[in-house]
Amino acid sequence: MMAKQFDVGVIGGGVIGCAVAYYLSRSGASVVLFEKNHICSGASSANQGGLAIQVFDLKTIPLALASSELYRRLSDELGYDVEYHENGSILVTRDAYQVPVLQRRYDELKRMGLDVDLWDDDQLRRFPGGDTEPFLSVIESHFDGQVNPFRATYAFAFAAKRQGVRILTHASVAQIKMVKRRIRSVVLEKGEEFVCGRVVCAAGPWSRQIGQMVGLDIPVEPQRGQIIVTEQVADSEYPYILDGDYLTTAYGIKPGGVDEAARKRHALGIGGSYAQDPAGNWTIGSSRDMAGFVRTSSPEVLKGMARRLLSFLPGMKDLNCIRFFAGFRPYCVKDGHPILGRAPDLSGFYIAAGHAGEGIALAPATGKLIAEEITLGKTSLPLEEFRYERFVASH
Ligand SMILES: Cc1cc2nc3c(=O)[nH]c(=O)nc-3n(C[C@H](O)[C@H](O)[C@H](O)COP(=O)(O)OP(=O)(O)OC[C@H]3O[C@@H](n4cnc5c(N)ncnc54)[C@H](O)[C@@H]3O)c2cc1C
């Protein structure tokens, strides 16, 4: 069988792979994208679409801000509404143990020059949260937002296709051939071979399997997250709401003085995140645990998340839940940060993986930077902190 030839092969049709393929094709490269299922079938279809940048690790905030910049004009650029709304977010707590954590976070964000406010007593009292005690602390971010993750992924894929990217679905990559540590071709499970001197691993939680094909350990594993979806209701006009505990369960920030109930919640990985989408459905998140590729939901976690929500917004007790789901965040087990850029000692292999709970937020910047690295050999934002080399002892 004759092999087909492309400049670059992208493995993975989630938001990251589709963004990489789009930006690559914009710069004139010939690109083929391989997706083992259908476009947007992995983590990119099982999340809250939040750009809750105020809770991100400080290291990734510049990447996230660059992404927001791109998101602002993405619907026009791609000719497809990705439903990006910059409606802000609030990071809230009623737990005394999180108050100093929020104060520290606020100071850090201010030092970065970001547009955030720490609410005063009057603002805390005025929050229309129902008949509960006022929050003890709230950080309001004016630059956070939300996007429809399905539409964002498809928008990149459709635009990439229009620009000539060959998108192959139900095309599982089984082998990557090399000649003397130089990428030569990609072979599908079905046996078809594609010659491409460059390959981008954008396989999300499955990236370790792709790394094994070239003798590279990509330390990314699936981190399960669970979400409840409610019926549609009128627009609450709330921004994206995050529980202070999110900093603990997602980012490992450990407060002092935690009570027993909180210890149990944290052990289940529950850190509240609540968003209403433009159609009126609320997504109630979220949880974190390492359960391998087991995509079932757990009643204990779902109950815990619902209970936590009602402690913030008791008025939501009468809402019907219409479904729940679980997904796999691509989580870098070494340090929780994305792995971006060319692989060391391997010519033509690039990684765009490990975006954990930030992949939707980071997708446009990731796609643009990986495309720059491949086509220009340099990037408009430094990637050094995200490179694979950070795991190499001599580095
Ligand atoms: C519950 C939950 C809530 C989240 N909330 C948010 C949020 O609010 N904001 C945010 O920014 N992020 C959020 N995330 C994280 C976000 O969903 C991910 O970071 C992002 O979707 C990762 O995209 P990806 O393209 O790397 O991976 P995926 O979307 O998983 O795509 C990888 C693709 O690679 C394909 N693939 C794998 N192996 C092969 C192979 N051998 N051959 C061909 N194809 C292959 C898979 O089929 C898959 O489609 C959340 C995640 C979860 C689970």
Describe what you observe in this structure.
- This protein has 395 residues and is an alpha/beta fold.
- The chain has 2 domains: 169 residues, FAD/NAD(P)-binding domain; 166 residues, D-Amino Acid Oxidase, Chain A, domain 2 (2-Layer Sandwich).
- Helices cover 29% and strands 26% of the residues.
- The protein contains 11 helices and 18 strands.
- Strands 1, 2, 8, 9, 10, 11, 17 and 18 form an 8-stranded mixed beta sheet that branches. The chain has an 8-stranded mixed beta sheet with strand order 5-6-4-13-14-15-12-16, with helices on both faces. Strands 3-7 form a two-stranded antiparallel ribbon.
- A hairpin with a 6-residue loop joins β17 and β18.
- α1 packs parallel to α6, α1 runs parallel beside α11 and α2 packs across α11.
- The longest helix has 18 residues.
- The protein is elongated, with a radius of gyration of 21 Å.
- The mean pLDDT is 96.
- It binds flavin-adenine dinucleotide.
- The site of flavin-adenine dinucleotide (FAD) has 43 residues, from α1, β12, β16 and α11.
